[in-house]
Amino acid sequence: NEIEAIVDSTEKEFSEDEVKTSKVSNAGPANFASDSRPSVVTWLKDLKAAEGTPIRGGKFWTAIAGAVEVDDSGLLLLCPKDKVDSVYVDYATYSAVVGNGKYLAPKGKKKQQVSMKGMASLDDSKLDIVAKLKKGRDDDIVLTTTVSIRDGASTASDAVQVCQKQLLDGIRGDPTANPLDRRANRRLVHCSSLAVSSLSFDDVIEAE
């Protein structure tokens, strides 16, 4: 369908069944997100342990950039807690599907894992619209976007705030925006690329 065509244009970063093309019926039960969600580090520890390759010293690691929420997808920067000040995020790029019935997620309190000087300024971010689905959907317009955030650590939640500020609409499937009318199984944000520099060694790592 047309939604799948939009997803295809972003190299299948979201699976086809994650985008719903119609509103949720009010006749069914409300779909609330659980209040208690594991951290992405805990989830990753459990996953790798189940695969037979446990992560040693998992409690000493922290997620500082990219897909830091357990329900987001894409690249994630993990770092030992005592080495956070030794890495610098040069840039991060996110893909997001915008179109949530104009419902916006609250900004909330940001979990600061790096120092203020190591955090990205969202005022310098760049948003591009990759595809737009509007025909015959005046009450449910869907946009596929890319968000580039440079010079500091950022997360998928930062990309959400950039989209909401510039497009005045929420991320599709975001449970914190409207849990009664979720239009996807999760919020459709994907970290597609990261570039990280070491402040201790002359190294730069890029991943896509």
What does this structure look like?
The chain is α+β, with helices and mostly antiparallel strands and 208 residues long. 14% of the residues lie in helices and 27% in strands. It has 3 helices and 8 strands, in the order ααββββββαββ. The chain has helices at 2-8, 40-50, 156-167, and strands spanning 61-66, 73-74, 76-80, 87-98, 126-133, 142-150, 189-198, 204-207. The strands form 2 sheets. Strands 2, 4, 5, 6, 7 and 8 form a 6-stranded mixed beta sheet that branches. A two-stranded antiparallel ribbon has the order 1-3. The longest helix is centred in the last third of the chain and has 12 residues, at 156-167. It is globular.
- Unreliable stretches, pLDDT < 50, 5 or more residues? 1-12, 21-26
Spell out the helices and strands N to C: HHEEEEEEHEE
Distance between the termini: 27 Å
Instruction: Give the overall average pLDDT.
Output: 78
Strand-residue proportion: 25-35%
Comma- or semicolon-separated keywords:
disordered N terminus; 3 helices; 208 residues; globular; 14% helix; alpha+beta; two-stranded antiparallel ribbon
Gist?
The protein is of the alpha+beta class. The chain has three helices and eight strands; from the N terminus they run H-H-E-E-E-E-E-E-H-E-E. Strands 2, 4, 5, 6, 7 and 8 form a six-stranded mixed β-sheet that branches. Strands 1-3 form a two-stranded antiparallel sheet.
SSE layout and pairing:
Blueprint: H1 2-8, H2 40-50, E1 61-66, E2 73-74, E3 76-80, E4 87-98, E5 126-133, E6 142-150, H3 156-167, E7 189-198, E8 204-207
Parallel strand pairs: 2-7
Antiparallel strand pairs: 1-3, 4-6, 4-7, 5-6, 7-8
